[in-house]
Specification:
globular; 3 domains; 11 helices; 9-stranded mixed sheet; 6-stranded mixed sheet; 378 residues; Rossmann fold; alpha/beta; 27% helix
Length: 378
């Protein structure tokens, strides 16, 4: 069966999403702490496996979308949870460790500060292994004995730190930005950083930048499309989602359902499963994320773009994928037109893509084509 969204599950690498709940009693080391891993870099650098060997955790839980992609490619025995690290930690009843590799030592520390600040009301404290600076942080009332043991096991320095208080309800500060990099809220790019801190605030019906952001109006429009945003609870970050290319897999089903992902690429793992033969991705960055994730699942993508991508992941697409660029329209408009053609019914992917291209004609230009028979309609 499919596990409830709140329950961590274990999946084998390349699994299609049907997962079995894992219980602590199945662990080889039930008396050891739980390891919660965030972000793909810790897998891409080989640090996740190294930590698992030394710590021998009772469980290893992965939080985050691209972290899951990297984890599946690593072949390590881990569980997956789509919730933020603080939410995962709150559910655990035994001692736990947060492991991360930030884009810089400063951003790694800021990330730990954010997670620890969200645990303040629980009185849990936090122990963080930050691989970018080779530091074990003890945040607030974290387990100092556990942190000291980890410092000994890893050779990392031990540092005590106090987290900052939660942000004001109507305002959010995104720290550790590098000027020029993309800034995300709930997986949607809302602009580019102009300073090391971006400040946002809520306004009636949406959000607005206060400082540090060159806004992307279309991105903010997409963000608020489904209703008001709670900035205090929103997932905010900056920078590339992943820097390493994905590992390729052989193509999977050629017949089945087409899953539509509209500017919410971070939701893809919740949508693809048994019977998915391909993904219709609407938007430049959504196409990039879906292509990256689906490459290692062997799932082709039909991406609709209009040329305003932000280069958030290395470009990669599974065999059978096509990316088309709108010539005079917005990707949203063409995507809304194509979505009903998916409709949840079973299709032959290659034939469906061919029919889409016939319908659109010279309204679009093919910019990526990984089909086996490229003499098909272009």
């Amino acid at each position: 069966m499919t596990a409830p969204a709140h329950e961590p599950v274990r999946c084998s690498p390349g699994h299609d999403g049907e997962c079995t709940p894992l219980v602590e009693e199945n662990s080889k080391h039930p008396d050891h702490p739980v390891l919660v891993i965030h972000g793909p870099e810790i897998f891409d650098y080989g640090e996740a496996g190294w930590l698992i060997e030394r710590i021998r955790p009772s469980r290893t839980i992965v939080a985050g979308v691209m972290a899951r992609t990297a984890a599946e490619e690593s072949d390590l025995p881990v569980e997956f949870q789509g919730e933020p690290p603080s939410s995962v930690i709150r559910l655990l009843t035994r001692p736990c460790i947060l492991a991360n590799h930030g884009k810089s030592p400063e951003s790694g520390r800021i990330f730990g500060d954010i997670v620890a600040s969200r645990l303040q009301d629980s009185g849990q404290g936090l122990v963080q292994i930050e691989c970018s600076s080779r530091t074990v942080f003890v945040w607030d009332d974290g387990d100092r004995a556990l942190a000291s043991s980890l410092s000994h096991l890893t050779g990392f320095i031990l540092e005590e730190a106090g987290s900052t208080r939660g942000v004001q309800r109507q305002e959010r500060r995104i720290r550790g930005c590098i000027p020029g990099e993309a800034v995300y809220v709930n997986g949607i790019i809302i602009g580019r950083a102009m300073a090391d801190t971006v400040v946002l605030r809520t306004i009636e019906g949406g959000i607005e930048p206060v400082s540090g952001l060159a806004p992307k109006a279309h991105g903010i429009e997409k963000l608020i499309r489904d209703g008001p945003i709670d900035l205090s609870a929103a997932w905010c970050k900056s920078g590339a989602i992943r820097s390493a290319p994905p590992r390729r897999s052989t193509r999977r089903e050629r017949t089945g359902a087409v899953v539509v992902i509209d500017h919410c690429g971070h939701e893809i793992y919740r949508r693809i499963g048994h019977g998915c033969c391909g993904v219709l991705a609407i938007g430049d960055d959504t196409t990039a994320v879906c292509g990256h994730i689906c490459t290692h699942r062997g799932i082709p993508v039909l991406g609709i773009v209009d040329g305003d991508g932000d280069g958030i992941v290395p470009e990669s697409f599974a065999a059978g994928s096509v990316v088309i660029q709108a010539e005079t329209e917005r990707d949203d408009d063409i995507g809304n037109e194509l979505a009903p053609m998916a409709g949840g019914r079973s299709v032959v992917w290659d034939d469906w893509v061919k029919s889409v291209l016939q319908v659109l004609g010279d309204r679009v230009k093919v910019v990526v084509d990984t089909r086996e028979h490229r003499d098909a309609v272009r």
